[in-house]
Amino acid sequence: MLTAAKNQLRVCFLSIKYNIMREMVNKVTFLTNVVFMVLNDASILVQWFILFRLRDDVGGYSLREVLMLWGLVAASFGLSNILFARVLSLPDLIINGKLDAFLVQPKKVLLGVLTSETRISAIGDLLYGVILVCLCKPGVGGFFLFLLFVIMGALAFTAFALLLGSLSFWFVRMDILQNQMLMGMINFGTYPDGIFQGDARVLLYLLMPVGMALWQPAHVMACFDGKMFLAVLGYVLLLSVAAVAVFYRGLRRYASGNLMEARL
Amino acid sequence: MNRCNRKVAGTLPYRYGFGGRHKPWRKYTVIYKSVLLENLQYVANVALGFFSYFVFIYIYNRLWGYMYRSPEELIAGYTKEQMIWYVMMTEMLYFGANANVVAGEVARDIRGGNIAYLMNKPYHYTLYILARYTGEWSVRLPMYAVFAVLIGTALVGPLPHFQWITVPLMALCAVLGITINAVFKLCISLFSFWIEDTTPFQWIYNKLILVVGILFPVEIFPEILQPLLKLTPIYTVCYGPAKLIVDFSPEKCVEILAAQAVYLAVGSGLMLLIYRKGVKRLYVNGG
Fold it and tell me: Do residues A38 and A78 touch, judged by C-beta distance below 8 A?
């Protein structure tokens, strides 16, 4: 069983590697995508410099804490889109019968689907997140904690996208819902939780994984709390298990299309 | 591979729409109408986009609610209500007249070779794209405008000192701003004739418009930067129309309309020039 898992991971790793190598055929485009994504992400810093000129804190966050939050969100989103970018087009695969090509392959369907695409610009997001957090000087321990939270954030982001995308097995137009909810998660996640109060705050913990996957990790990075760290870990594992279960439950309903497609 | 014939590449006067004997712009009106009718079939899809718009507005409502210490406080000369309405209006223009689809379409046409078919039609390709784009936002923008007014009134109350009589001027300013934005985005996409992927340049342009024009009015930036920002497209694309809506003054209106006229003329000239230079470089694969 261990060998099977090892082989599975090796196949996934090779899939991602070849995705990146394919994109690197045109080196100028590859580099432009990465560098300009870093610049694109960095340009939003202007907003925070403006806001911190007006007040010393925004939603109870200092500038350093906001930058750490941004670094965490950008790196999590980036890692998710490097490893599992196909999750964003899952509704299209399901609705148009494009899953057939993955079903006949001798590897786990879900992992095969998720790792079949890499967004090169996401490397820029990941780089930006790491650079931003390094500029905040979190220390060696803090940096490793950040890396752990980036992995958890990427898993939470992917799981949430998978959960919403898998609803396409039952309903149509889930691509729009998936896109809007993920954008909502990023938009809410990049602002301090202190500005949201009342019911909205509750919804952002229950309806979207913003609170547990992004805000709480940012709090733990600012002031370590072992119990909260374990709570975040448990939450991400639970969300991932639920997403995988919904996908395989939905896969039983999948009706094959008559689309002829080859994956080389 | 054949090098395109220069004459076919779009230098004939009729291709600009000026060569017809009667009503030279009629063909673009027909394109506009056909896209408008097509988009009217998908109003439900447009309404689905309201969620993202609402998320943005909700966040900025909370953010500015936090930044203003008291209801009477002024930041850069704006009250809290004016500041939130400013963001709502710029976001309305951004969502309602999203030019990303059009810019992406142009880049795909050039990279994929579809341009070879489109440029031989009896219209100028860039004007055809602009006519299509206008047909698209003519459906989306009014829907977003109604939604913006509804949630704006619900969240922060009616806009203070709003005069309905000035609406036609505001609408003209908004239409010019949208068109200028589309022209500049088209210019960037037309660089696909030289480089394979222009998307990264679109990101930077979009982010500049977003951060400097959509989220904040020009007055909030340091005074030393303000004259510089007024020289950029941001002033005519988002600041101008939104400023007139939240704080109308005849002098400001004349200033913004004049700046828009200059920007539209320069941008259009640039767009036609880039297209003309670009198609000369076009290689068409057979098949």
Answer: no
